[in-house]
Design a protein that fits this description.
This protein has 241 residues and is α/β, with parallel strands linked by helices. It contains 9 helices and 7 strands; from the N terminus they run H-H-E-H-E-H-E-E-H-E-H-H-E-H-H-E. InterPro entries: Methyltransf_11, SAM-dependent_MTases_sf.
C-alpha cells in the first residue's frame, strides 16, 4: 500500500508539469514515428495504454484512427489526459486503475502498450506487469513497451548527478539493456519479440543547458532523434501474439 501511495504522489506531482505544446517537440515526433512503425495499421484498432501519464502519445494514435483506452493510477494525470483529448475533439476511454489489477477481459485489445513505466518496478513486478498486459492482447495483436536505455551514457551520468543532489523526481528507475528487456518479456510469455534502441540526443537534455547545446550543434532534428543506435535513449520492444 505504501508503494502505491508513493507512486500516486510521484505521478500526481509529475502531472503538474504536463503542457499541451509538448506534443510538438522533436523527441515526441521521433517517438510517434517509431511507435507507429512498430504497431502498424492504427485505424479502428483498440489501443490500451497502461500507465498513460499525460496521454499525449495515445492522442497521436487517436488522430490516426486508434480507439484509445487509458489506464493510470494518478487521477490528476487522467484529468489532464481528458482535457487534452477534449481540446483536440478526440474520444477517449479513461480508467483510474492499478496496472496490476486491471478490470478488462483477456484478449480485449489489438494493441497494449506503455512508455516509461516498466523501469519503476523490481524484476518480479516487471514480469507480472508484462504478463498482465500480454493477456489483454488479442490474437494477432501486439504488446509494445519503451524504457530508458542503460547504454545512453549521457543520460546515466546526468541521472546519477541528479540523484546525488537529490534532484531526481521520478523515484526508483532502473535503466535496462535490450537483453534484459527481451529476457523479461520471454519470461512473461511474450512471443515474436522485436527490440532496438533509438534517439542518441535526448540524454544530453538532462544536463544543465543540454537542450541549448544540442541546439547549437544542430542535433535537435527529427533525423537525429529518430536515429537507431545501441546508445539511443529509448529502447522499444514489441511482441506479436
Amino acid at each position: 500500500m505504501t508503494k502505491i501511495l508513493n507512486l500516486i504522489k510521484t505521478w500526481d506531482k509529475e502531472s503538474e508539469s504536463y503542457l499541451f505544446e509538448k506534443k510538438m517537440q522533436v523527441d515526441y515526433l521521433a517517438n510517434y514515428y517509431h511507435l507507429e512503425n512498430c504497431l502498424g495499421n492504427l485505424n479502428k484498432k483498440t489501443i490500451l495504454e497502461v500507465g498513460s501519464g499525460s496521454g499525449q502519445t495515445s492522442a497521436y494514435l487517436a488522430t490516426h484512427g486508434g480507439i484509445i483506452h487509458l489506464v493510470d493510477i494518478s487521477s490528476k494525470s487522467l484529468n489532464f489526459s481528458k482535457k487534452y483529448f477534449d481540446s483536440l475533439k478526440l474520444p477517449v476511454n479513461i480508467y483510474n486503475q492499478n496496472a496490476f489489477n486491471m478490470k478488462f477481459p483477456n484478449k480485449s485489445f489489438d494493441y497494449v502498450w506503455n512508455g516509461g513505466v516498466l523501469e519503476h518496478y523490481n524484476d518480479a513486478e516487471k514480469v507480472e506487469l508484462i504478463k498482465k498486459m500480454w493477456k489483454l492482447v488479442k490474437p494477432g495483436g501486439k504488446i509494445l513497451i519503451t524504457t530508458p536505455n542503460l547504454y545512453d551514457i549521457p543520460f546515466i551520468v546526468a541521472k546519477k548527478i541528479l540523484e546525488f543532489r537529490k534532484k531526481w523526481s521520478f523515484g526508483l528507475e532502473e535503466n535496462m539493456s535490450m537483453k534484459k528487456i527481451r529476457d523479461l518479456a520471454k519470461k512473461a510469455g511474450v512471443t515474436n519479440i522485436h527490440i532496438y534502441a533509438y534517439n542518441p540526443i535526448v540524454g544530453f537534455w538532462f544536463f544543465p543547458y543540454g537542450r541549448e547545446i544540442t541546439d547549437f550543434l544542430k542535433l535537435n532534428t527529427f533525423k537525429y532523434h529518430k536515429r537507431i543506435t545501441k546508445f539511443g535513449h529509448v529502447i522499444i520492444m514489441y511482441g506479436v501474439k
